[in-house]
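Revision sheet: structure tokens.
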Amino acid sequence: MKRFEFPLESVLRLRRFAEAEARQALTEALTARNQAEAELLRTREQSARQMRQLTDELPTLAATEVVAIWQELDHLEELALKQAAHLADCEAEVQRRTEAYIEAQQERKPLERLKEEMHREYLHEQDLAEQAFNDELAVIGHSRKGGEA
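Predicted:
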């Protein structure tokens, strides 16, 4: 009996590879997005700490210290705006890469189903051939027994 061979195996391998690359690109985009989100969160927490320090210690701070804290708050706010813009860019990249990954899956899945269907058909044909062979052996065996009697 010959072995099952899927005629589009090379195409299927290429599509699996493309899907793996798309999944890796999505993973990288998600990592970048999570990092950008964490950086923005740290900046906002630092800004909140500075603001609490300013409100808690305002009566005891010298004017130069108040000015320095306000400058630091301005700097943190500018940084937070830049980080928010970067986070939005990362979110858009995650969206693009998610769509590319889904598209790669959609290109691979029909080939996988076709391969499975062809393999089931191959197995069915093998079963039929084996059954026909066994039936033939049974007929031959029966005819020999009948010829001897």
